[in-house]
Amino acid sequence: MQEQLRIRRRRDGTFDLDLPEEEREILRTLPAALREVVTGDDPAAARLFPPAHPEDPLREDEYRRLTHEGLVGKRLAAIEVVERTIDARRLDEDQLSAWLGALNDLRLVLGSRLEVTEETGERELDPEDPRAPTMALYQYLTWLVDEAVEALAVGLPEGGSG
Q: What pLDDT, on a 0 to 100 scale, did the predictor assign at position 162?
C-alpha cells in the first residue's frame, strides 16, 4: 500500500501541502520548542551548529564569532515561516525550503536526543519504551523531510551542470 503524498509540486511551481489536521496540530507545537533550542543553551543545538574547525580552537572561535548569529537568524526565519504558514494548503518554493530547513532541524535535534544512529533510525521501538513516541515523531519528520526534498527536486534538470 502506497502512502498518500503530503507535498506535491504543481505545474505553476507552487506546492500543495496536504497535511491532515491531526498532523498539522502536531507540527504546530514544534516551532516554539525548536526556537528554544536554537536560541538557548540546549546541548542538542550542537547538532545544528557543528564545528567547522574542531582541530583548531582559535579558528573555531573565530568561525563561530563570524557566522553563529547569521546561522541562528536563518533558522529563526525558517521557524517563523512554518508558524505563519502552518495552516496553508499551498506553499511557494521559498516557503517550502524554509519548512524543509525547520523540519530537518527538528529531526536533527530529536535524533540527537534519542542518540539515533543509522542502525537505530529505522528500527521500531517497543511501544512500552518511553522513547517510542519521540522516535515515532522522529520517523514522521524524516518521512516529511524526504517528501519535501522529492517535491523540490521535481522539475530539476537531471545529471548536473556540465
A: 47
138 contacts 114 by C-beta, under 8 angstroms: yes
- Residue 129 has a pLDDT of 82
Quick one: how far is CA 68 from the chain centroid? 19
Q: Hey, where are the domains in the chain?
A: 7-153
Q: Quick check: pTM over 0.85?
A: yes
H/E element, 117: none
Rounded CA gap, 84 and 102, in Å? 13
d(CA 108, CA 35): 14
Q: Which distant-in-sequence residues (6+ apart) come within 8 Å of 83 by Cβ?
A: 31
Instruction: Give the rounded distance of the alpha carbon of 16 from its chain centre.
Output: 18
Residues of the chain with pLDDT under 70: 1-3, 119-125, 159-162
pLDDT of residue 117: 78
The residue behind cell 522539475 is 155
Q: Which three cell numbers stand for residue 59?
A: 579558528
Give the position of cell 527536486: 153
Between helices 132-153 and 21-28, what is the axis angle to 10°?
Answer: 110
Identify the DSSP state of 5.
Answer: P
